[in-house]
Amino acid sequence: MLTLPTFANTLEPYRQTGTPLVPRAPKVALTRTAFAAAHVVSDALRERNPWDTRPAVDWEATLAFRSRLWDQGLHLAEAMDTAQRGMGVDWPTALEMIQRTMVAARAHPMRPRVACGAGTDHLPLTALTTDDAIRAA
Fold first, then answer.
1. Which H, E and C letters describe 71-109, residue by residue?
2. Which of 32, 40, 132 is nearest to 90 (CA)?
3. What separation, in Å, do the N-terminal and C-terminal C-alpha atoms of the chain show?
4. Helix (H, G, I), strand (E, B) or coil at 65
5. Contact 100, 59 (CB under 8 A)
6. Distance from the Cα of residue 47 to its chain's centroid
7. How would you class 94 by CB atoms within 10 Å of its CB: exposed for 0-12, middle for 13-18, buried for 19 or more?
8. Helices (H), 3-58
9. Which of 24, 52, 54, 70 could be a cystine partner for 112, CB 3.0 to 4.6 Å?
């Protein structure tokens, strides 16, 4: 059962129909490294405009989702431009997400690999005029 937000800023239960698949870890080691580009879970009851302020992230649910992916033998591509950046996740939130994810990955029993994206989109173009400035960003 899911708990979903309503327009009245309350939570109501929603029951799915059908038979869901049961997630499971692979029985043998995977022959290739598979990286998932995981979503960020928003705190639906905190009203925010991600274009004007930092997004309201439900950190507990966001990290729990990553843990479920790791439980299935996947690794993680975190804070990639195509997955979160440019979709309302600003640089301070992306950095916090990377830091929290790395702590969780180190504590996970499967020791998953995490590839983190770090762009320069948080800086004005005038600050990126040399190779050294880009590397420092």
1. HCCCEEEECCCCCCECCCECHHHHHHHHHHHHHHHHHCC
2. 40
3. 43
4. helix
5. yes
6. 19
7. buried
8. none
9. 70
Report the Cα 20 to chain-centroid distance in Å: 23
Gap between the Cα atoms of 79 and 42, Å rounded = 15
Q: What is the pLDDT of residues 83-112, one digit of tens each?
A: 555 567 778 888 899 999 999 999 999 999
Tokens of 83: 């997955």
Closest CA to 50 of 40, 59, 63: 40
This prediction's pTM: 0.70
Angle in degrees, CA 73, 77, 83, rounded to 5: 125
Contact 66, 58 (CB under 8 A): no
Average pLDDT over residues 46-58: 75
